[in-house]
Write a structure and sequence with these properties.
Elements: E1 24-29, H1 31-37, H2 41-49, E2 52-55, H3 58-67, H4 79-93, E3 95-101, H5 104-117, E4 121-126, H6 136-149, E5 153-157, H7 162-169, E6 179-182, H8 186-191, H9 199-203, H10 207-214, H11 216-238
Parallel strand pairs: 1-2, 1-6, 3-4, 3-5, 5-6
Helix pairs in contact: 1-11, 2-7, 10-11
Length: 242
Amino acid sequence: MLRLKHLCLVENRKALSLLPEGKLLINTINAHSYNTAQKDALFAEALMKGDYLIPDGSSIVKACGWIGAKSRPTERIAGWDLFETEMERLNARGGRCMFMGSSEKVLQLIREKAAGGYPRIEVVTYSPPYKPEFSAEDNAAIIQAINEAAPDLLWIGMTAPKQEKWTYSNWKKLDIHCHVGTIGAVFDFYAGTAKRAPLWWQRHSLEWLYRLLSEPKRMWRRYVIGNPLFLWNIAKEKFSAD
């Protein structure tokens, strides 16, 4: 079972630019993924055994301090922060970036926007089948596409926990030597098919409320039920012996 107090988290945005070169699996954790990991063993393992874990939620940052966690991040680091840091670094030297996930419509918008925003990056994309679980043939095709692309940066965007579990489960089959980030909604934010909360909401730790108000039918369970559940789970962790 995942325990926040034992996790090693990236502690600030500046540290993102200091990540070493090579094949690294970079995941994010927020209140929703923390809750999900309490009942999904493979997801918990993927988060615990990745190379770097980013606190994508003010609730995670505050909880680390309250429970006396091993890591004490000083700020929230969104998946968007990771995306910008990595893309700017790759653009500075030039290279190939692969986006694996989402629909062909979203990927087309990403290719068009990246051509102007990151002119020194060659963007390649792959849209996997839209289904709850991939077949062996699906997996083989995805892995082959990634390996043949030989990217200098790889983004996986299939929503949590699917993206983290897939990447972790197939990690040894990926014959690549680059950073790999599981960034879900960032695909839509960058493409413009979903709107990120304005800065005021972000700065006041209310991005979750903006998403709830924007998509109440899809998000109500995650936040109306999930937020109190997170507080309950964190309280149990604080007062547990392990």
